[in-house]
Design brief:
Number of domains: 2
Mean pLDDT: 85
Helix content: under 10%
Number of helices: 2
Strand content: 35-45%
Number of strands: 26
Shape: elongated
Distance between the termini: 107 Å
Largest sheet: 7 strands, antiparallel
Order of helices and strands: HEEEEEHEEEEEEEEEEEEEEEEEEEEE
Low-confidence stretches: 1-22, 222-227
Radius of gyration: 34 Å
Length: 470
């Protein structure tokens, strides 16, 4: 019996040994994926600037490609009429395609005291009372990097920075789902690609005079024309000869912002989120014609263009001589302060059949009809209403009082001929509606009456945005 038990013990032990060894007898394989990672992409916008002041390169407003911190696109402290500048801004987004937006905000427009020359034409003083912002005009365009506005490049915006309400950012699209200023079709800019914007300014009237592509190498390069670098060499014109003393010692400040937004999975992005106040006055002239101030004892006075932010031109169909008189080269706008009755708004209004020499001039009856205009910032596709007050001059024939209003060159309304009654000035409110087609819009009033220095009063001009862009 003991032998049997011992034998069974050997069998069990052998079986246990066999069981342990059998675990390595099956097929097997092992695969390992190590270090799985997500890394977020980046939208990193960098900007550089090449800047010129009166055709001379300026290091204080130029810099290499960087993130903006303290850099300034303009920083000039001794402006004189006819001064001008040009910048070529380059924009670069690393790696990813992006939408690109910009905005400009006028942060101050101040009258910093009144010196003796300014005091003769302007008595306004203090924060927000400056004239400078209405007299510094800009042109922005999609550039190819050569510092020159050329005929195949798209002008983005043109007009005075003073057209912007204080502290109210003006947003515009450089490239979004509806716009691309560098291409014929809308959409984002490409990553790792440099894009250029040209910016020119003038202390005075600015104009676009595009050159043929490749015609001139631009400011800061060898001047093949041999006459010194001028605005015309860069495809613009600048004329400050019509400016007076009203803006002496005035100052303005502004912020310029660029923003890049991812394009992937964001097909319908637009830069401009439209908000509007139907009671807001877009034209920054205080509603009426309160500057320049009439100081002549005759209670009326003429002021040469640019007057109160309005460019003034002699009507094109009238003669430049009258008897022995020769018409001034620069057109005058005639301001009244109670000479024939009360203004509708404030205490001044204008007469658009003006005068060549003012109260001390040699005579009356000369052909002095004018057209006045200003360019304001608008939102393409948004609706606007232009309101204004018209009155015939008292005791004048109907043919003397006839007002035309144009927006972007198109006639939107005429009023008159209207007989001037014998009573007080009879103001009437008129309005026209339009949809803006560009980021800047010209509004223009013209006297169509008999050109004899009598007729067509205007006051209380207001331009209101009434809808968002479609």
């Amino acid at each position: 019996m003991q032998r049997i038990i011992k034998s069974l013990g050997l069998v069990v032990g052998a079986a246990a040994i066999i069981g342990v060894g059998a675990s390595g007898a099956f097929f097997s394989d092992t695969e390992t994926s190590s270090g799985n990672t997500f890394t977020a992409g980046a939208i990193d916008l960098k900007i550089d600037n090449e800047s010129y002041y009166n055709g001379v390169a300026t290091s204080t407003t130029s810099w290499e490609l960087t993130d903006l911190t303290i850099q300034k696109f303009f920083n000039f402290f001794d402006l004189k009429p006819d001064d001008w500048g040009e910048d070529t801004i380059s924009l670069h987004v690393d790696t990813n395609d992006s939408y690109l937006c910009a905005n400009v905000t006028l942060t101050s427009n101040d009258d910093n005291g009144i010196n003796e020359p300014e005091g003769a034409v302007d008595q306004t003083d203090g924060a927000g009372q400056g004239e400078l912002a209405g007299l510094v005009n800009f042109i922005w365009w999609a550039d190819d990097g050569d510092n020159v506005l050329e005929s195949d490049e798209n002008v983005i915006s043109q007009g005075p920075i003073g057209a912007l309400p204080l502290n109210d950012p003006f947003n515009f699209a450089l490239a979004d789902s509806a716009t691309n200023i560098w291409e014929t079709t809308p959409g984002p800019i490409n990553g790792n690609t440099t894009y250029y914007i040209g910016k020119a300014w003038c202390f005075g009237a600015i104009g676009a005079a595009p050159l043929a592509p490749g015609q001139y190498p631009g400011p800061g390069t060898d001047n093949t024309q041999g006459d010194g670098v001028t605005p015309e060499d860069g495809g613009i014109t600048c004329d400050g000869t019509t400016l007076g003393n009203a803006s002496q010692t005035d100052s303005l400040t502004a912020d310029v912002t660029f923003e890049a937004v991812q394009a992937r999975h964001n097909p319908n992005f637009t830069c401009v989120t439209c908000t509007f106040d139907p009671n807001a006055n877009v034209v920054s002239i205080g509603g009426g014609f309160e500057t320049p101030e009439v100081t002549n004892g005759a209670l009326w006075e003429v002021f040469p263009s640019v007057a109160g932010g309005w460019s003034v031109e002699w009507r094109g169909d009238i003669p430049a001589t009258f008897g022995s008189q020769t018409r001034p080269t620069i057109a005058n706008l005639e301001y009244h302060e109670g000479v024939l009755g009360a203004a509708f708004e404030g205490d001044q209004y204008v007469e658009l059949d003006t005068d060549w020499g003012g109260p001390s001039g040699p005579g009356d009856g000369e052909p002095a009809s004018v057209s006045i205009s200003r360019t304001i910032t608008t939102i393409p596709g948004a609706s606007y209403t232009l309101r204004y007050r018209f009155a015939p001059r008292p005791n004048t024939a109907a043919a003397d009082n006839n007002l035309e209003v144009r927006v972007e060159g198109g006639v939107l309304g005429t009023t008159g001929p209207t007989l001037g009654g014998s009573g007080p000035i009879a103001w009437q409110e008129l309005s026209v509606n339009f949809v803006a087609t560009d980021a800047s819009t010209e509004i223009r009033f013209t006297d169509l009456g008999t050109a004899n220095s009598l007729g067509t009063f205007l006051d209380d001009v207001r331009l209101n945005q009434t809808s968002c862009a479609q």
